TrEMBL record:
The active site is at C56. It comes from the Bacteria. Belongs to the MsrA Met sulfoxide reductase family. The keyword Oxidoreductase applies. HAMAP family: MsrA (MF_01401). This is Peptide methionine sulfoxide reductase MsrA. Has an important function as a repair enzyme for proteins that have been inactivated by oxidation. Catalyzes the reversible oxidation-reduction of methionine sulfoxide in proteins to methionine. The lineage of its organism: Bacteria, Pseudomonadati, Pseudomonadota, Alphaproteobacteria, Rhodobacterales. It comes from Albidovulum marisflavi. Residues 49-202 form the Peptide methionine sulphoxide reductase MsrA domain. It catalyses: L-methionyl-[protein] + [thioredoxin]-disulfide + H2O = L-methionyl-(S)-S-oxide-[protein] + [thioredoxin]-dithiol; [thioredoxin]-disulfide + L-methionine + H2O = L-methionine (S)-S-oxide + [thioredoxin]-dithiol. Its EC number is 1.8.4.11. It is an enzyme of class 1 (oxidoreductase). PANTHER family: MITOCHONDRIAL PEPTIDE METHIONINE SULFOXIDE REDUCTASE. One of its GO terms (molecular function) is peptide-methionine (S)-S-oxide reductase activity.
Amino acid sequence: MLSALFGRLARMPEAQEALPGRDEPIPTAEFHFLSGLPLKSPVPNGMEEAMFGMGCFWGVERKFWQVDGVWLTMVGYAAGITPNPTYQETCTGRTGHNEVVRVIYDPDVVSYEDLLKVFWEGHDPTQGNRQGNDIGTQYRSGIYTYTAAQAEAAETSRAFYAERLKAAGYGPITTEIAPAGTFYFAEDYHQQYLAKNPGGYCGVGGTGVSCPIGLPDARA
């Protein structure tokens, strides 16, 4: 309905075009559906956080909760303009937000470079504002960093992977790399969606091109 009222933008909105949003966060789940951990747990001592956008966040979250060393995952909206957006608002393209997964992980078990391997190999980062049949700016490829070290690792991996993709016949990478900014939780039903709905749709798919950083089998 909001798409009918406001139309859908096929580009990032200017500030004056963005929906107003709201002052208060929208309701979300209290606990992770699989682990039972409080979804809004603070990052434990010794753990770190990461954030990625790589298409429909249902399938993306599943990729990361399956990784050893990942302690907690959650889906939401980031890298846009509208405060506390809803899913329906984000789908209009008039919030500027991306569908993202925030990952809390133990760096003694899984490195940030290993997570980047999951990111690059788990989607097609050359498609611009789409991922497969899912079209819109909320499906763009993005790495949202929390530290200078993460930003450097992201930039380095993008350069390496661009060469691999080019050799395989793919076009330029369109992935944006930017500071994480504010993460807004998505609604309750989106959290761990494919664990609640195992047969649910997931339009996220990789290129089949291995990433030359991260896990040992990717360095060959």
